[in-house]
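Incident log, structure service

09:12 report received: a user says their structure output differs between two submissions of the same chain.
09:20 pulled the input from the user's history:
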Amino acid sequence: MLFLLGLLMLPGLLLAQTYTTHAGYAEFTGHTPLFSFKGSAHDLHGTINLSDSVVSFRLPVKSIDTGNNKRNRDMRKALKTKKNPNISFSGKIINTNTPKSMEKDSATVRGTFSVHGVSRQVTIRGLLKDMQDSVQVRASWPLNITDYNIKPPHVLFYSVEKRIDIHIEAVLKK
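09:34 re-ran on a clean worker, output below:
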């Protein structure tokens, strides 16, 4: 879900370098009036090309685990994973704020977030950290599931709230 935003903040450094990961972390948190639940995966694939500020991430829905087999099945059914096996983001870094130290940075990425067969333009802010031969990316943002034609599921007598919180972390290497 991407996300992938702070990545491209190294405008003066490593300008023509591409960074990739196949083991990034993605997490979502859903809420009901009584409790919250999480789904997570360590299968976030991503690429950042600093020469053209292009960012691309993909998460196989089947890799998300909520800690409950029935909830996993219900989630996959609701997201129609046979037809839409991935959640994805592709976009460009549109703004960076690079401190002199280059240790920590913030960036804004604008692009297309796709889930459940629906794509929408989003703007995401995140953090990027230069780590010699790699960059670390972190981002969190809210997502309204009804914007993606996902019906809020029911747990007992309660509906899951429309807003879920998404968080990603990844170390991308040259």
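09:41 both user submissions now match this output. Likely a transient worker issue. Closing.
09:42 reviewer note: The chain has one helix and ten strands. The beta strands are 18-31, 36-49, 54-60, 86-97, 105-115, 118-130, 134-144, 154-155, 158-159, 163-173.
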